[in-house]
Amino acid sequence: MGALGFILNAEEGERSWRLAEYVKRGGYSALKKIIDENIPPENIVAELKKSSLRGRGGAGFPTGLKWSFMPRQFPGAKYVVCNSDEGEPGTFKDRDILRWNPHMVIEGMIIAGYAMGCARGYNYIHGEIWEIYKRFEEALEEARAAKLLGPNILGSDFSFELQAHHGYGAYICGEETALLESIEGKKGQPRFKPPFPASFGLYGKPTTINNTETFASIPYIIREGGQKFLELGRPNNGGTKLFSVSGHVNNPGNFEVPLGTPFKKLLEMAGGVRNGHKLKAVIPGGSSMPVLPGEIMMETDMDYDSIQKAGSYLGSGAVIVMDETTCMVRALERLSYFYFEESCGQCTPCREGTGWLYRVVHRIEKGEGRQEDLDLLLSVCENIAGRTICALGDAAAWPVQGMLKHYRSEFEYHIEHKRCLV
Amino acid sequence: MLSQDAIQKIDREIAKYPAEQKQSAVMAALAIAQMEKGWLSTETIEAVAGHLGMAPVAVYEVASFYNMYDLAPVGKVKITVCTNLPCALSGGVHAADYLKQKLGIGFNETTPDGRFTLKEGECMGACGDAPVLLVNNVRMCSFMQPEQIDRLLGECQ
Question: Is B4-65's fold the same as B77-155's?
């Protein structure tokens, strides 16, 4: 685990997640400061804007700006929701945050409730991590017992209740409006936007949804100041970021490093490419982001703007490393199957298109591809991307387009020779 | 019918949401019911619907949408293996093949003695621990090379 940040720097002992240990590390001092000094909510939002914290779930939207969209004078319930439904292949950071530092997320959510005038929050936790969900519930109990959560927090007028909601296996619920539908007890099918959740969210009330890592960054920003957080990273790319490095490396895992850290260094931290193999390609931001050749990545820094310039996106910070032995047709087949399997079926271009993508890539992989298949794939992509309610459509199209942009010859070889180039 | 214990657990879930939003507890209620009954039959779905004041079809919609619910009987031990790209790069498909060979079944099949069911899963959010598999929806097992798989199967016998 990386030691350069503040989210995962806790000693990895089994008790590090407990309230007492978190308080020893300075935990809940940001909340205490807010309550003791009676800090106006708008100052908190201003501090976030200064920090240039951007949403850590994938879209990279400025958090301070998002919080400022919430109507201040709304009469009635408003909600804060944490998105811990981490299911974008390659991403496994929220699991570690909740495993080692659940109180940091709880504190971040309480501060969010204070800043946006919400009395209730939910943390939506990925279905497959039951043990982590149970731990989060235990952490909530600890916080309630210490009067950090619930009515009249720390003796103030401010009350905030927080609950955990356990998912049950649907990638699409990582999309924020699908997640809200899911909390409401329905199928997780995304809503058309606008209206955005800030005006029509959970139960039709104003709601702000942020990622686990985003909430975990809040206490630090309040305690140390937005400026200090910003300086941890780069202009417009404030703070540290957790990168989940998986695939062909010697030491896969989560590494928390300042935004702007060269990919080369991150790869070193992950032990380099396994067994001394040569780096072939990297998906830098989770499986839905376009793949980039290794040589481009070796020249790229890990921040939102640098990766975009290189032709992909930082996304959720999931770095999937592939060495020279990887067949890109086979790799894409795995990814396309995922989007086909996880399409919620609501929009025709995605429901039908993801099936087409998978079947065509699958037949190329099996050695039954046709020369016209590559253009067919691109045409299907064009008919999905931008034509659906949510971004899952784009997420299914981008990996295909990325692969064909950089590795078209490998696909052509596969079609012609009915076997892998590697 | 659901047991008193299950009803109590479901009521604790209902209390998490605003009083007029009982339906929000449907996912948890189905999970609790499935843990008790092993799978979700039409009768179980109707019992959950009755307790939450929902139309049975609305509960069925939820049960059929999320892939950790089982709408048909499964073995005592359900093993779900992730074969997505990051896991596949690190042996996920080999782990699945090994399990198929050891158990003598394919995906979505159950051993004749009714002990094991094998499923292919999608991303479990633990790609750094590949190969990863999930036992009965609650126990995640990491770094599952053949030796670890043998040990797990032994424990479950």
Answer: no
Three-class secondary structure of residue A9 per DSSP: coil
Rounded distance between C-alpha atoms, residue B27 and residue A281, angstroms: 39
Q: Is the confidence metric ipTM above 0.90 for this complex?
A: yes
| Beta-ladder partners of A150 | A160
CATH 2.60.120 fits B4-65, yes or no: no
Full-model pTM: 0.96
What torsion do the CA atoms of B11, B14, B16, B18 make, to the nearest 10 degrees? -140
User: Using the beta-carbon criterion (under 8 Å), do A89 and B86 form an inter-chain contact?
Assistant: yes
* CATH code 3.40.630.30 for B77-155: no
Cross-chain CB nearest to A341 (options B90, B122, B138): B122
pLDDT value at position A3?
44
Alpha-carbon radius of gyration of chain B: 17
Best of B48, B67, B70, B85 to disrupt the A interface (most A CBs within 10 Å) is B85
Determine, for residues B54 and A245 on separate chains, whether the beta-carbon distance falls below 8 Å: no
Q: What is the pLDDT of residues B4-25, one digit of tens each?
A: 999 999 999 999 999 999 999 9
A336 contacts chain B (CB < 8 A):
no
Sequence spans of domains, chain B: 4-65, 77-155
Residue A5 has pLDDT above 90, yes or no: no
Contact A19, A103 (CB under 8 A): yes
Segments in B38-124 forming alpha helices (H): 42-52, 56-65, 85-89, 92-103
**Which ranges constitute the DSSP H helices of A311-391?**
328-342, 348-365, 373-384
Which candidate from A120, A129, A341 shows the least CB-CB separation from B125? A129
Residue A324, chain B, CB below 8 Å: the answer is no
Q: How confident is the model at residue A1 (pLDDT cuts 50, 70, 90)?
A: very low
Whether residue A176 is predicted with pLDDT greater than 80 in this model: the reply is: yes
Band of pLDDT at residue A6, cut at 50, 70 and 90: confident
